[in-house]
Amino acid sequence: MLNLVIFGPPGSGKGTQAAHIKEKYGLLHLSTGEMLRHEIASKTALGLEVESLVVSGQLVPDELVTEVLKKALAEKMSQGNGFIFDGFPRNGEQAQILEDALNSLNLDINIAINLTASDTELIKRILLRGETSGRADDNEIVIKERLEIYRKNVSDLISFYQKLGKLNEVDGEGTPQEVFERITKLIDKHI
Ligand code: B4P
């Protein structure tokens, strides 16, 4: 089993790269952002509870996002060669929650990827995506809020995976294919 975490600022390409990784290595892609957007679109009780937070770029409380993640883990446990966690964890607490949840299933994270890109590039990408995504959080004001929240939380996440010796930084700039090549080199060294 190969279990990966991919984190990085909004627009760094986590979702884009996770989709390629899933395809190449036969992993299951768990994106908490997508799961939350699905709950919102389906107007579930949880979706209604988190909608205003997601739309304004705030983080959803740990216990709610954990509930969504654990449900997906339990459902998909027996499929695929492992998991790629995209957008979870987003802070130190969530990193510990994920570690405990996996350990209780006798699983572990093998590689944590920190995808980086400059703010100029991130804002450019998200504004471009906003033209077609229909996502209420893809606009300039909310992007700045999301970047600020990201920066506040990322150092705990970095030190968590650094202490475990699993942290790997990958430059997220360049074409999606170039970024993917950097990531495959890294994964292939571990398998
Ligand atoms: P996410 O869905 O994780 O949103 P994201 O950070 O914007 O996406 P990502 O980095 O995956 O970017 P993408 O590949 O699409 O989260 C949304 C919200 O959900 C959060 O703000 C929060 O409210 C909530 N949430 C999610 N997880 C949570 C958690 N664990 N705890 C609490 N709250 C949580 O790429 C962006 C764009 O760039 C795309 O248009 C793509 O085509 C383009 N692109 C990608 N790579 C490129 C490249 N190399 N060159 C040029 N363009 C590129």
Describe this structure in words.
Helix 1 crosses helix 8, helix 2 packs across helix 3 and helix 6 packs across helix 7. The chain has about 190 residues and is α/β, with parallel strands linked by helices. The radius of gyration is 16 Å and the shape is globular. The mean pLDDT is about 95. The protein has eight helices and five strands. Strands 2-3-1-4-5 form a five-stranded parallel beta sheet, with helices on both faces. About 60% of the residues lie in helices and about 10% in strands. BIS(adenosine)-5'-tetraphosphate binds next to helix 1, helix 2, helix 3, helix 6 and helix 8.
List keywords for this structure.
alpha/beta, binds BIS(adenosine)-5'-tetraphosphate
In short:
This protein is of the alpha/beta class. Helix content is 60%, strand content 12%.
Overall shape: it is globular
Order of helices and strands: EHEHHHEHEHHEH
Mean pLDDT: 95
- The share of residues in extended strands comes to 5-15%
Helix content: 55-70%
Distance between the termini: 10 Å
* Total beta-strand segments: 5
- Runs in which pLDDT lies below 50 for 5 or more consecutive residues are none
Largest sheet descriptor: 5 strands, parallel
Helical segment tally?
8
Strand order in space, largest sheet: 2-3-1-4-5
Bound molecules: BIS(adenosine)-5'-tetraphosphate
Structural class: alpha/beta
Query: Which value, in Å, is the CA radius of gyration?
Result: 16 Å
Per-chain topology:
Blueprint: E1 4-7, H1 14-25, E2 28-31, H2 32-41, H3 45-55, H4 62-76, E3 83-86, H5 92-103, E4 111-116, H6 119-133, H7 140-163, E5 167-171, H8 176-190
Parallel strand pairs: 1-3, 1-4, 2-3, 4-5
Helix pairs in contact: 1-8, 2-3, 6-7
The structure holds BIS(adenosine)-5'-tetraphosphate.
